[in-house]
């Protein structure tokens, strides 16, 4: 019991943060697509370069306008929480893959690319201990 009280008092006198963040879903974004592209040997400009740098997609679909959407597996999809108690302690597990989608015009040029990335939601509260002596105030 005494150890817990001493630990609590020490923690109150340190700067730090407490809280948590959850990592339970994904967001698709162009920025994440750019990050995935940076890890490949070259940039995708059309269907030919997509096949060259990414290989065959796991699925293809064509809409009414003739545009094609290709879907690839991205990196691992991690889910879990991060507990913040002075330092972050992640409790995460891989639960599948994030996906990369590329849309090509009827002529085969890349018109749009997005990729899933982990989103974070949560609350982190910063504790800052400042000592103030009222006798020293003007």
Q: For the CA atoms, what is the radius of gyration?
A: 24 Å
Mean pLDDT: 80
Largest beta-sheet details: 7 strands, antiparallel
Report the total helices: 3
Number of strands: 7
How many domains? The number is 1
Percentage beta strand: over 45%
Task: Give the end-to-end Cα distance, rounded to a whole number of Å.
Answer: 42 Å
Instruction: List unreliable stretches of 5+ residues.
Output: none
Describe the structure.
The protein has helices spanning 2-12, 30-38, 47-54; strands spanning 16-23, 26-29, 59-62, 68-85, 87-104, 110-118, 121-127. It is built from 3 helices and 7 strands; from the N terminus they run H-E-E-H-H-E-E-E-E-E. With 138 residues, the chain is an alpha+beta fold. The chain is elongated, with a radius of gyration of 24 Å. The protein has one domain (24-127).
